[in-house]
Sequence to fold (307 residues):
Amino acid sequence: MSSLSFSPEEYTQQLETAAATVRDLLAKFPEISSPRVMIICGSGLGGIANILHSEPKVEVPYSDIPGFKSSTVPGHAGKLVFGLIGDKKVPVMCMVGRLHFYEGYSFQETTFPVRMAKLVGVKTLIVTNAAGGVDPTYKPGDLMIINDHINMPGLSGYHPLRGPNMENFGPRFQPLSDAYELELRKLFFQKKEELGITRNIYEGTYCFVAGPTFESRAELRFIRTIGGDAVGMSTVPEVIIARHSGLRVLALSLITNAGLADKPPSAFDKNPKPLDEGMASHDEVLEAANEASKDVQKIFEKTINEL
Ligand code: HPA
Fold:
């Protein structure tokens, strides 16, 4: 594992260089050069970047920032977008296209942008993802505000804070019992009410798995048994690094598919259930994501205006 050879001094130097590059690129735009909020756009949620005012807006491909890796996932563009949100013109930094552990990157690499965000002045991380529903009542297009997580790889040793502690960011033993801030969750739901949005938005526990396979049926039952409401392959490493860096966190899952947790058909069944029973078609999933994403954009705009 690469963290064995990881040097906090070298890593800090790389982060400082990345932050200095971003500051230089934004030097001509003082209103947006110190973003207060970082938004990580998950799959199907890249449209969040559209709520930024059109001027001033600066797009920086990851390849222009030393230390940033490029996303290898089709449809994840890989750029930072800097701009303003809401009538209070809150300066934000949007990450369109994220880096996943399953792509083969180390946690130091996948979470590099979060620590760099801290260095350029970000105070709050808003993180989004596409996730599978584990709670049997969840349907594609539902949303879930994350109020807790289960870090499956972390519990067995693949943890983003493993290795020497970055003392200049946070403590060796970071508590996570309050990782998903109550005040931010309340603010989000208050804005949902004010906007009259009726979509199902639950609060629940996100279970992080390494991927890249989707869960087997038995794994889904296991995740449900241990308390997971939704499951996905991202978010938790970024949240842990954000909390270690002292950032406030609001996190949201878009449920794109409802997991198939029933036992598979038996070889002894005379009339086995079709294997895809209950599975949404790809078009249905995309449609649900698109509509839900519009509601997310509206609520985020009003929420961020208060940050
Ligand atoms: N499992 C894991 N990650 C996911 C899923 C899922 O069902 N859906 C979207 N991301």
Q: What stands out?
A: The first strand starts at residue 37 and ends at 41. The two ends are 38 Å apart (CA to CA). Helices lie at 8-25, 107-110, 112-119, 152-155, 182-194, 217-225, 236-244, 282-304.
